[in-house]
Design a protein that fits this description.
- The protein is mainly α.
- It is built from six helices and no strands.
- Helix 1 packs across helix 2.
- The termini are far apart.
Length: 121
């Protein structure tokens, strides 16, 4: 049990050392931004890989949706990506916020329609 405690303390010390380096070393903020960008790229690649695996495992079900269902599914995926990228609109308020929530509602409707179609025989 004592070894685990030292591992945790070591990990905390490593994180603290990185934070101190980013704060005090000249150019540390730019290096931190570069690392953050690399992590976001890796996260995006991981999501893409998960999506590919899901598609390969559910290929027959997706083909069984028909043209309308597949079109809705791919459209919802594009809409979700757009809404994620346009999330800064919500902070602006007014008409743009209303439009964002209307588009999110359309996405929810499309998901429910795809689910209903997939469950029908």
């Amino acid at each position: 049990m004592g070894v685990e405690r030292f591992k945790t303390l070591r990990n905390i010390a490593i994180i603290a050392a990185i934070a101190v380096a980013v704060y005090y070393v000249p150019g540390g903020g730019r290096a931190a931004s570069a690392v953050e960008a690399a992590l976001w790229v890796l996260f995006g690649l991981a999501l893409g890989f998960i999506g590919l695996r899901y598609y390969r495992e559910r290929r027959v079900t997706i083909a069984g949706l028909g043209d309308r269902g597949r079109g809705l599914a791919y459209g919802v995926l594009a809409l979700v990506l757009f809404l994620f990228e346009a999330r800064w609109w919500v902070s602006i308020g007014g008409f743009r916020e209303l439009l964002w929530f209307l588009l999110a509602g359309v996405g929810v409707w499309a998901v429910m329609e795809i689910y209903r179609q997939a469950r029908s025989y």
